[in-house]
Specification:
Pfam families: GATase_4. Catalyzes the hydrolysis of the gamma-glutamyl amide bond of hercynyl-gamma-L-glutamyl-L-cysteine sulfoxide to produce hercynylcysteine sulfoxide, a step in the biosynthesis pathway of ergothioneine. Its EC number is 3.5.1.118. The chain has seven helices and 13 strands. It is α+β, with helices and mostly antiparallel strands. The chain has a single domain (3-245), classed as Aminohydrolase, N-terminal nucleophile (Ntn) domain (Glutamine Phosphoribosylpyrophosphate, subunit 1, domain 1, 4-Layer Sandwich). A hairpin with an 8-residue loop joins β2 (45-49) and β3.
C-alpha cells in the first residue's frame, strides 16, 4: 500500500519530482507499475519541503486523491525546494482521520512516511504501545498504523538515537510484534535520507553531488535507478549513499 519518495538536490520546483515525470507519484496514485498490495492510492496525499533560511519543513496534506487537487498543482509548479518528502496513500478501510493519516508526519526538522502495513493491526501493537509514555500515544495524529509507526520512530529520535538505528530498531521491534508486516520507512531532515526496504519495493537514483532520489518505484525510465534489496537500511546525503543489511 502507498507510494512515497524523498529527494535531495539543488533547488527545483516540487512538480519536477512529484508531478512532471512520466511515472510520477501523480500517475502512481492510479497506475503504479510495481505496487504489490492495493491498487489505487486515493485516500490522501502529502508533501513536505524545506525552504532556504527556515529550519522547519512546510507541509501540504489532503484527504482526497492528488489528481483532484488543482491548488496543489499550482503550488507545486511555483514552490522551489532543495529537499522534499511526498507520499500518496492507498485506499483503506473507512475512517475519520482524514488528512491527519496522510504522510508526511513531522517532528522538528524531520519528515516521515511509511509504505506498508502492520499485520494484525491494532491488536498486534499492544505490547509496543505499552512501552511508550501515555503522552506519546495521546499525541498520535491519527489512529492508523503509519501514525503509530511514526510514534515509535519519533520516540527513539527524541531520545537521541541517530536516524539509522532509530529506523532499524523500530523495524525489528515491529517485526517481532507483528511478523509479516511490510515496513518500508522513509525519513529525512532535509540534509540526509534514511530508509528501510522491508517487504515492499524501494529504489534509488543517485547523481552525486547534485541529486539523490529514494522512492517506492522509479518515476521514469532512467537506467540509473537501482533496486534496494529487501531487509536493507539505506542512508544517503548529497555526497554518499550506503546500504546495510537489517
Amino acid at each position: 500500500m502507498c507510494r512515497h519518495l524523498a529527494v535531495l538536490g539543488p533547488g527545483s520546483p516540487i512538480a519536477e519530482s512529484v508531478l512532471a515525470p512520466p511515472h510520477s507519484l501523480l500517475r502512481q496514485s492510479w497506475a503504479p507499475r510495481l505496487q504489490r498490495y492495493g491498487t489505487v492510492n486515493a485516500d490522501g496525499f502529502g508533501v513536505g519541503w524545506y525552504a532556504p533560511g527556515d529550519p522547519l519543513p512546510a507541509r501540504y496534506r489532503r484527504a482526497g486523491p492528488i489528481w483532484a487537487d488543482e491548488s496543489f498543482a499550482d503550488l507545486a509548479r511555483v514552490v522551489r525546494t532543495p529537499a522534499l518528502l511526498a507520499a500518496v496513500r492507498d485506499a483503506t478501510a473507512p475512517g475519520g482521520d482524514g488528512e491527519a493519516a496522510a504522510a508526511p508526519f513531522t517532528e522538528g526538522r524531520w519528515l516521515f512516511s511509511h509504505n506498508g502495513a502492520l499485520t494484525g493491526w491494532p491488536e498486534s501493537a499492544g505490547a509496543l504501545a505499552a512501552g511508550l509514555p501515555p503522552g506519546v500515544l495521546l499525541r498520535l495524529e491519527a489512529r492508523c498504523d503509519s501514525a503509530f509507526v511514526w510514534a515509535l520512530v519519533r520516540h527513539r529520535l527524541l531520545a537521541g538515537s541517530p536516524p539509522g538505528p532509530a529506523l532499524a530498531d523500530t523495524v525489528r521491534a515491529l517485526d517481532r510484534a507483528a511478523p509479516g508486516s511490510r515496513l518500508n520507512l522513509l525519513l529525512t531532515n532535509g540534509s540526509a535520507i534514511t530508509a528501510t526496504a522491508w517487504g515492499d519495493t524501494l529504489w534509488y537514483l543517485a547523481a552525486p553531488p547534485e541529486r539523490v532520489v529514494v522512492a517506492s518505484e522509479p518515476y521514469d525510465d532512467d537506467p540509473g535507478w537501482t533496486e534496494v534489496p529487501d531487509r536493507t537500511l539505506l542512508s544517503a546525503d548529497r555526497e554518499h549513499l550506503t546500504l546495510q543489511g537489517l
